[in-house]
Amino acid sequence: MKIQDIIFVIIFIIIALKRDSKISTLAGILCLLLSIPLFAFWVFFTAQHLVYYAAAFFLLSIILLYNDK
What we know:
The chain is 88% helix and 0% strand. It is mostly helical and 69 residues long. The protein has one domain. The model has no long low-confidence stretch (mean pLDDT 91).
């Protein structure tokens, strides 16, 4: 497990405990925005993980929105 994975897990847990879907969505968008320059510079491993992290944040946001109703 790399340091970026550990940071992701910590941030993911914090956002999940706060139960705020807006923060989760913003974190997903931020991950996608950070991955764009990495893809441009051919840093595929980190960029690919950022896209996976974005998907996890979006899924968390959907789950939080679903549980609010």
